[in-house]
TrEMBL record:
Keyword Signal: yes
Keywords: Membrane, Signal, Transmembrane, Transmembrane helix
Signal peptide annotation: 1-19
Subcellular location as annotated: Membrane
Assigned GO CC terms: membrane
Cross-referenced InterPro entries: LHFPL
Annotated protein name in UniProt: Lipoma HMGIC fusion partner-like
UniProt superkingdom: Eukaryota
């Protein structure tokens, strides 16, 4: 296997790790709930949220991270769409990475041996990057929901976080998109690389 393919496999693996971590952890945006606790949100999970036991009691803060009870409890249809879109992008990313790892360990040697296959894998990584990016673009459209305004102030609106700020999980997802775009470029470089087969090296490209 050439050094180019090794770099491609490593970057693909890193992109998958960043994308999955950034998607699952709810630290996309950070606000302040009731002036008492930091609140965090992603498209389908949140940390530290209010709960009212009876109509006559003041809300109390639940200090935990959890997903919404069901998909339909997600407070914005844009967040629902973001969740679905990024999920599909992650699925493609992980499948592509597992395929590359299988090829690197001789289970699927033809993948890195055939230019057509490397281009297909690279195109899938580009599609994954596009879907993750699309989900990230949809997410701020839902910043006008009630839960965000409780933590970010009444000024929170579409693409306006009010008093909130972007948190570190968002940067992990952006980093994954950048790496996937780089992997797309590497796949086409690998496809153009002339084979130089040795008698015992079926994976060399």
């Amino acid at each position: 296997m050439s050094g180019l393919c090794i770099v491609w496999v490593i970057l693909s693996t890193l992109a998958s790790i960043l994308a999955c971590t950034g998607f699952y952890l709810p630290y996309w945006i950070q606000g302040r709930l009731l002036g008492k606790a930091d609140a965090y949100f992603s498209s389908f999970r949140r940390c530290n949220y209010p709960r009212i036991r009876t109509p006559h009691n003041a809300p109390e803060i639940v200090y935990q991270c959890a997903r919404y009870s069901s998909f339909w409890d997600i407070p914005s249809p844009w967040w629902q769409a973001s969740t679905v879109t990024i999920s599909f992008g992650l699925t493609i990313t992980v499948i592509g990475t597992l395929t590359l790892l299988a090829a690197a360990t001789s289970f699927l040697p033809h993948v890195l041996k055939t230019p057509k296959h490397t281009r297909i894998l690279g195109s899938l990584q580009l599609l994954a990057a596009t879907m993750i990016c699309g989900g990230l673009i949809m997410y701020p459209i839902g910043w006008d929901n009630r839960e965000v305004r409780e933590s970010c102030g009444k000024g929170a609106n579409v693409y306006n976080l009010g008093r909130c700020s972007i948190s570190w999980s968002s940067y992990l997802l952006v980093g994954a998109v950048v790496l996937l775009m780089l992997c797309f470029g590497l796949s086409f470089c690998a496809a153009r690389h002339k084979p130089n087969h040795g008698p015992n090296d079926p994976l060399r490209i």
